[in-house]
TrEMBL record:
Residues 10-283 form the Carbohydrate kinase PfkB domain. The keyword Cell division does not apply. GO terms for molecular function: kinase activity. InterPro entries: Ketohexokinase-related, PfkB_dom, Ribokinase-like. It comes from the Bacteria. This is Sugar kinase. Keywords: Kinase, Transferase. Gene3D superfamilies: 3.40.1190.20. Pfam families: PfkB.
Amino acid sequence: MNDRQPHGLFVGLTTLDFVYLANQTLGANQKQVATDYTVAAGGPATNAAIAFRSLGGAATVVSVVGQHPITQLIRADLQAWQVDLWDLLPHHQASPPVSSIVVTATTGERAVISINASKVQVEADAVSAEVLNEVDVVLIDGHQMAIGAAIARLAKARSIPVVVDGGSWKPGFETVLQQADYVIGSANFHPPGCATQEAAISYLKQLGVPFIAMTNGSAPIVYHSAAGSGQLSVPTTKVVDTLGAGDIFHGAFCYFILQHSFVDSLAGAAKVAARSCESFGTRQLLL
């Protein structure tokens, strides 16, 4: 690494998020007036890219956005955060995925309804090796599996570190994981036949992943590498909103791993993610 701005490439899902802050969890047939709201571009790769950019890096999102009228809101948000977009289907006319999210003020917990990228999967040849020019780290969230696997293979050939956001298992994920240098899974990451965190770690080790970490909210991060295994406590914080905390963790990790050790990068990312839970929405921490 030289003195230039580090560049991260973030491959996967972009959504438009409508986020509401409510005093209590909604029940059946219940209406409630929100106490606050925000609208922003979202999705694991997209939130991670914005976090990476806010820490001082240059970020590019590789995703499907297209030309539906509401994509203007997504593009405007990315431009405001100076995040570049490599649109895999620039002439796509259908609506991008839209998420409706309710955050409960008393707990900071969120309820999300959305649709992922399963209806718009792009073939591997939709992107060229040019996308990796001047890139220092790649994050793949698995929502565009063919593209993710292709970019992971290209990055591996160029010795560019590949980070995988293992938020949940997705069909074909093994094609990406086999190329990964770092896999950060969540409590919801269950590869086939893996009902426990220990089984998931064993699965990743068998695939040859050299650096593995598993997060679980406020519980300690479990990590494994050739240098050793252990647990890492996460910072205690006053939780206002947990939305996007995992995505922000991944973006921060991508930034720190270019400068620090694996464990130190996990610790730094945990601090950034914890601070993100102290404010409503996915942006106020980053302002």
